[in-house]
Amino acid sequence: MKSRVQRLTKRQREVVRLASLVCSQAEAGAILGLSPNTVDIHRTKAMKLLGVNKAALLTCVAIKFGISPLDDKLTRTERRKAGSMHKS
Questions:
Q1: pTM (2 decimals)?
Q2: What are the tens digits of pLDDT across the range 27-82?
Q3: Which of 1, 39, 62, 79 could share a disulfide with 25, CB 3.0–4.6 Å?
């Protein structure tokens, strides 16, 4: 699994991190400056590469391999970009 995680692109890692923080595709798109559809494409490709088919498993991988540390949360800037969409 570690080699699979290492093959994720920078953008895929960003999307996986935001997904693990329970951001919607719209929120992740606002944070990253992407359309929700583009976020979905990155998430889908990351999940396929990692061999997971559920968001909960994606979160487990993100935590286990340091993409999103257990105590991770959105930065102030990320919360501002997500606007009122994200409740944290």
A1: 0.90
A2: 999 999 999 999 999 999 999 999 999 999 999 999 999 999 999 999 999 999 99
A3: 39
H helix or E strand, kind and range, residue 82: helix 76-82
Distance separating alpha carbons of residues 50 and 30, to the nearest angstrom: 25
Closest CA to 11 of 24, 33, 1: 33
CATH label of the domain that carries residue 10: 1.10.10.10
Number of other residues whose CB lies within 10 A of the CB of residue 36: 14
Tokens describing residue 7 = 């093959």
Helix, coil or strand: residue 71: coil
- Looking at the predicted structure, is the pLDDT value of residue 86 above 70? no
| Confidence label for 2 from pLDDT (cuts 50, 70 and 90) | confident
The boundaries of the domain holding residue 59 are 2-79
How many domains are contained in the chain? 1
